Structures are given as structure tokens and as C-alpha cells.
Known about the structure:
By secondary structure, the protein is mainly α. The protein has helices at residues 6-35, 37-43, 49-56, 65-70, 73-94, 103-112, 122-132, 143-155. The longest helix is centred in the first third of the chain and has 30 residues, at 6-35.
Amino acid sequence: MEAAPSGVLQVEELVGSHRRVMMLGTLGLGIVLGSGPIPARSLQSPSQAPSSQASSSQAPSQLAGRDWQKFGPKEKEAYLAGFIAGAAAVHGSAGGMSTDTTPSKAIDVMRAAKELPFPYSVSVYASQIDDFYWWQNHLDVPIVDVMARTNLQLRSR
Length: 157
């Protein structure tokens, strides 16, 4: 069996590792976010169970204030860390990566150049989102929209 040129192997390794990272990140975020409501559901009466399962069947992009308020600190941190890392990875790959650039290297370059799409820490975004959802009339706004709005407000200061 003939060996493939090293450039081909590097591309295959990069694409494979990028896919693995994205898949594992999505899986990990799903496990962490999905693990929060499980104990609460087990404590509810069967008559309450169908309404509690409505939010768990939502896509992560459609989670809103009521879901955010149910998250504990670790779930909020995991959601935001995944969101920020995903935005940076997408932004980095849109900027064009060569075969020797991994997503983490692209993110490091963006961080050094102060070009990250969401440049603030998880705790900054979490406190801003907590403040936003304090208002009852904001609870139907998706978290994704609040993240984008919060980021624009922070960057305009």
C-alpha cells in the first residue's frame, strides 16, 4: 500500500480533528445542558411532566429566558463557553485557514489581534444576560438574540 503525500495527510488530519472537535463540543454541550432539567423532572408529578419537556425538545438556538432562568451557573457557563468558542471557530474558518492552521491557532491569532467575535469573558456575558432576563417581558427572547444584542452593546461602549 502506497503512502499518501504528507500534505494530504495533514489536510485529512485537520478536517478529521476539526469535525471531531465540533462533534464532541456539540455532544458535550448537549450533555451538560440536557443534564440540568433531569433532576427537576424526576421530582415533578406526572401531570406536570409534559409541559416541562417542551423546552428540552427545543433546538439550542431557540432556548429563551425561561430556559436561561432554569440553568444553574455551570449550565450557563457551558452554554456561553460553547457559544463563544463556536463563534470564534466559525469566524476563524471563514477567514480562510491553510492546511497547517488549526482552529485553535486561528483563534489564538484572532485573540492577539483583538478580532474575536465575542471578545469578553463568559462571566461578563452571563451577568448581562441575567440582567436582561430579570425583566419578565424579555423571557421569550431567544438567548442567541440576547447574546448578539449584548455583544453589540458591550462593543459600542
